Amino acid sequence: MSLPVEKKALHVPDLEELATVLEDGLKSYFASVSVSVVDCPDLSQQPFTLAAPGLCGSSRAVDVGGIPNIHPLPKLDKIYDMEKVAELADLPGAFMIGAGAGPYKHVGVNSELMPNLVASTAAKEGSNCTHDIRLDVDSGQPILEKCSSTECALMVNLYCSEGKPGKVLEVKASKRTGEADFVAAMREVMNERYGEKPVGLGGSFMIEQGKAWLHIMPDFCPTPITSIKENEEWLKFIEFDAPIICLSVFYSHDPGLDLRIEHTHCFSHHGAGGHYHYDTTPDDVVYRGYFHPAEWVYRVDRPTEKWVPTDK
């Protein structure tokens, strides 16, 4: 895989400082907030069921491809192997979690992908815990499945590490009082504190109670999608019940790499999944997540063109 790669160092605040910043800031968005530095629980166990136990060791965020590979028309030649992406990010065999477009040649149709794997062919059996969710072509109903492929299409956003135990941020929040969703709230709080110093976080959070609004991409649209309205009409939005496991990568600031500033995909053990937008039950919602700062960001195969919606 010969792809252009750009690399920049991210600002990495002290974990205790970042915990204080997030706890103080999130009080403007949620009635109950607790942010602590803790030893990472074993995330390979229920309910998270990640492919590695922790989030620590050589942490980096990786942004591959992008929206211009999807709109106005999909670039179907944009296929990425996440094992190779790990090598491009200078971390062969990385533990990788995040959000991307599914490998349509493997799945059969366009889909949402929840990467969750140790990107090594030499890794032990069961180290690929990736899921995808697609819409059944006949019924239009969502189908959530394990995905054995290490490929994705069009774009993917990943948090990569050695998957080791260590100190992480535990973020608990409930009863949303602000307009921003859980991820956007954290991003806005960090942006206000750190400004143009880019902070990147990756990790997994549970929506433990409540409901969430997610979307699933249908199969590829044969006509160009040129506006936000057309995009929203194309996407399938579904309200799903908790518990939902979310895999997320987000930044306080884009250091000039055309990053997707936040991207979160979700799966569950009861058929829920897709791209996270926000919770729909602010009075009842309960979030619990574990996050770690990324030391570096790698921009892989940055599109040379931009998708500029006509109604922006």
From TrEMBL:
It comes from the Eukaryota. GO terms for cellular component: nucleus. It is found in: Nucleus. Monomer. Its main location: nucleus. Keywords: Hydrolase, Metal-binding, Nucleus, Zinc. One of its GO terms (molecular function) is zinc ion binding. The keyword Ligase does not apply. The lineage of its organism: Eukaryota, Metazoa, Echinodermata, Eleutherozoa, Asterozoa. InterPro entries: C11orf54_DUF1907. The keyword Membrane does not apply. This is DUF1907 domain-containing protein. Residues 21-300 form the DUF1907 domain.
